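Quick review question:
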């Protein structure tokens, strides 16, 4: 009998000096989400965050702190989310993101499923990192 395995993903909760959060509208399904993806075996966690945000937004970021750990209970994915700041670049649509936008916290709540919105909103909480589980759409207890 084989043991089920988890997948590890990383994401950047990029915050600008106006308190807005960077989000992408995914090209494959049209959903708004934080920029991020699967951590590759040969890279550090921080390198993965920087790579994923750059690939999806055109921006180079600096991870500042771990802001949350999230587990998708349905799919076995553990996501490590880091609050980040922009180092350089210009946001632009990419092969993975049809749109890249700075959103106010209320816009994040309106455009994203709860399971993804909290990943950005938790980065605004200075008491983190926060740990949450979800079903792919909503937070579960």
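Suggested answer, residue by residue:
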């Amino acid at each position: 009998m084989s043991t089920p395995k988890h997948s590890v993903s990383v994401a950047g909760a990029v915050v600008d000096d106006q308190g807005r959060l960077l989000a992408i509208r995914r090209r494959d399904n049209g959903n708004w989400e934080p920029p991020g993806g699967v951590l590759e075996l040969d890279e550090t966690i921080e390198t993965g965050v920087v790579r994923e945000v750059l690939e999806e937004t055109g921006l180079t970021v600096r991870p500042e702190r771990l802001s949350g750990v999230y587990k998708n209970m349905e799919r076995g994915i553990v996501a490590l989310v880091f609050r980040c700041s922009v180092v350089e670049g210009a946001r632009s649509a990419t092969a993975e993101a049809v749109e890249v936008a700075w959103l106010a916290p209320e816009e994040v709540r309106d455009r994203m499923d709860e399971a993804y919105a909290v990943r950005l909103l938790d980065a605004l909480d200075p008491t983190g990192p926060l740990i949450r589980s979800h079903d792919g759409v909503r937070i579960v207890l």
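Why it works: The chain has a mean pLDDT of 96. Strands lie at 7-14, 21-26, 32-33, 36-38, 59-72, 77-89, 97-103, 130-134, 139-140.
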